[in-house]
Amino acid sequence: MTVTPISTLDYWAMLVGEDDSLPLFEAAASVAQDAYPGLDLEPLLDAVDSFAARLRGRLTDDATVVHKLRMLNHLFFGELHFRGNANDYHDPENSYLNRVIDRRCGIPITLAILYIEIGRQAGIPLQGVCFPGHYLVKTRANGGEVFIDVFDQGRSLSRGELEARLVNHLPDDADPTLELGHHLHSARPRETLARMLRNLKMIHLRDDDWGRLLPVQQRLVALLPDEPTELRDRGFVYSRLDCPRAAIADFEAYLDAAPDCADGPAVRVRIDELRPEADRLN
């Protein structure tokens, strides 16, 4: 019997199909298959399992969360030497977990995804936080919440530090002491993956790298089926890649899903511009 290999996009759609069973680390790791075709994810999953096993072997059943965090930080930063790539923050390699593990460096969100997976396997209830400008990790300890910056060697952040970081992302008349709570909720895996992909999207847009942007946009459309703007954005990518029929299909689907969108007239103009190109393909 011949088994047809599943495409990376189909595999992605399968992984992110249901919120309740969405495996964050595996889905995040699979993003690297766009840049590294044929990448086998099993070695990555095995590597993380081995990291977590090392940590579990050092923890007693009665260890406090604070002690577990110290042990996780010692392993992650002290022994495995993971660090934030401050020197080349916008390198796409920072978003591919195979390269993060190989190079031992990444950006806040990829380091956090790895840190969370190791910690959870060792019994530490860690969660991601889509904090403005800088993805964080949190857990509960000593009757309150602890917020951790994995990009900064696992440093715990005080409320004052969080408020100071938030100021740059608020209107001038907003009070960070009142707004902070709105930005500290636990991120669902789907939110985390969307933020990770949008980081890559911004990088490829900055570089006008439409060929590398397309698979990122394909993943966003599959991940966020209720956000028609991702269909629109894929349409623009197709148009830049001289795929007018695909672009028109996405633009029309966008207008059907969001008939009152503010950019509707501009999108309709773009459809009219693309139709002669599509007709020439007949």
TrEMBL record:
Residues 45-198 form the Protein SirB1 N-terminal domain. Pfam families: TPR_9 (PF13371), Transglut_core2 (PF13369). InterPro entries: SirB1_N. Belongs to the UPF0162 family. This is SirB1 family protein.
